[in-house]
Amino acid sequence: MTERKFRKMLREHPDLISDEFVRSASESREFVKASTLTPELIVQRARLHLDLPDETWAHAEQTLTKIRRRDKCHLWLSSFSKIASTAFQSHRRLAIASILILLALAFFTLVPTGQALAKAAFDYIINIIGQHVEIVSADYENGDYHSSGLPPTLTSSADFSMHEFTTEYSSLEEFSAATNLNPFMLDDDGLICTSIIENSSEYSGRSLLTDYELGTDGILTITQRWMPDGKIRISGNDSFDNSFALQDGTIVYYSIDDQDGSFNAIFLLETSTCQIYVNKEPYISHIMTVMQNH
Amino acid sequence: MEKMLSDVLLEKLENVRGIAGTLVWRMDEVDDLVQDLAERVWRNNAPASTYERPLAYFSKIMRNLQCDHRKKEHRAGVKIIPTETFEAYAAVEDVESTAEYNRTKEIVREEFALLSPEMQEAFMMVYYDGFALEDVAKQMGVLSNTLSKRFSRFRQQLKKRLHAETIAISIILMAILNPR
Hints:
The complex is a heterodimer.
Chain A: H1 3-12, H2 25-31, H3 39-49, H4 54-90, H5 92-110, H6 112-132, H7 144-148, H8 157-161, E1 165-169, H9 172-179, E2 191-201, E3 205-214, E4 218-226, E5 242-245, E6 251-256, E7 263-268, E8 273-278, H10 284-292
Antiparallel strand pairs in A: 1-2, 2-3, 3-4, 4-8, 5-6, 6-7, 7-8
Chain B: H1 5-11, H2 13-23, H3 27-43, H4 54-76, H5 86-93, H6 95-113, H7 117-129, H8 133-140, H9 144-177
Helix pairs in contact in B: 2-3, 2-4, 3-4, 5-6, 6-9, 7-8, 8-9
């Protein structure tokens, strides 16, 4: 006979061993439900029979208060569960739907997998909607732009300056002659200039992008900026940990990317800022020598 | 405020009443037994933390109280007729099963009587009151393994006896049903 079976047998028939027991535990639980003995009554009777210090009874009163509070809570919970079960039975569909919605919400907000799914769905919807959205400017709502299908005629310099212009030059000298600005030039036989493009706008000022080819697969890009207000500002996300000086004393700050080995340098000139980018590591030392001799 | 044993009794009154209900027949007796227990606990009140299984402790006290009470009644010659006993239930249901149940009870009690008084009390504490085997073994001054083995031997012996009894009854029944 296993321990479990034996215990079960004794639980159901405790009188098997001794006449001390008159009914099983489960029968007893049902039987004593009718009892009117409360904790208050026990304390009250014990106070009459026992001669104990007042602190004992004060302690007992505190316990009774706690028990009352607990019972109140149990009563509230049981009545709530009764109401909930009644409501569930009469509005079963609504309750099931609400539970399902709550579960879905919990899944999409609390579970990491759900969060990822929700994000993917959100991005997908935004992508679809985004492709059909038309942004209509209120300024042109009643103007010629929509009625004629042609862009409005620019009438003032202010309107003109809102736009960005791109101009391509064949040489840096041509740019210098056209703009009266001094571009930063590197003089080296190994550098083959491939494009010189100027971008200009009232907000971002002028910038000059000069691309060079270097050796078989090297690329060098010089970006020089002149701000519209004549001031010099410099900003960037990279941390330029190293530096060297040009011949005129200008300090060049640079960094070499750990990932792709590219070279990024930045330095200030009299009226402009200059950024230099070299795509591959083998050309960096050569370019730095060229710059130092500038 | 440190939690005392009396606090546990008041908080677990429903369970305590349930235990008392297994020991006495009438409701007023249940209430009296619980009241007696409460007064005894208050007299020797101690922090609840000193008792690992307060309900088992309450059960043991109530068993002892009831035992004393019965002894007193026996001495006084009082005879209380049970209103709701196992026997009463069984008798109403089936005479045959009542006889079988009584025979089983007889065997179990015979085997139980073979145990030493110390082992009998240990048995009651573990299987009825709900004390941990380790605690009872410690109280008896034996290893819990030893106590466990003793209980296991008792169960095996009981199983053997009940099995033999079943075979004997079956043979008698077969002989009655098939006289050839």
